[in-house]
């Protein structure tokens, strides 16, 4: 049984040691013409697609079960907690976001499906970072008797996948939060939208 992940030290990161991100000092003028400065973090890995990452909203269709989705549990050092997220990952330099979404879903969950929709490029935390992403919707058609496929994780990846009926997703996220896990904002907003559409419209 692997040990629990834990923080052992935190210290400032010199810019010449940063492999994945860099800090930027952005000089700009506001709407009145006043000069201002903004601090931001920027990924170093953005490829020719212009998109940093993809997240995948999966729709599992089964002949005898209600539609489900897949969430993943993964320890994230910046928040020192297990996070509840969409399957997701960086777009490789030579691939499209659409191809990355199909690849990442298979690697992190083992499932293969068809891309049904991919969002425009959206920003993740525009007050702090230049990071952007696209949200893909992938449909997986299951057959009676299908077993859960094997994940294809990279060395050093520890990702637990969880299949959740869509109608239970919002409640499950609330439960996971009470357990001390941290829910990713994109997944929470998606689940809240489904729940509010079901209960408030």
In short:
Residues 49-190 form the Nudix hydrolase domain. The protein has 201 residues and is α+β, with helices and mostly antiparallel strands.
Task: Please explain how this structure is put together.
The structure is a single chain. This protein has 201 residues and is an alpha+beta fold. The protein has two domains: 13-44, no CATH class; 45-199, Nucleoside Triphosphate Pyrophosphohydrolase, CATH 3.90.79. It is built from three helices and eleven strands, in the order E-E-E-E-E-E-H-E-E-E-E-H-E-H. The strands form two sheets. Strands 3, 4, 5, 6, 7, 8, 9, 10 and 11 form a nine-stranded mixed beta sheet that branches. A two-stranded antiparallel sheet has the order 1-2. Strand 3 and strand 4 form a beta hairpin. It starts with 20 loop residues before the first strand and ends with a helix. The mean pLDDT is 95.
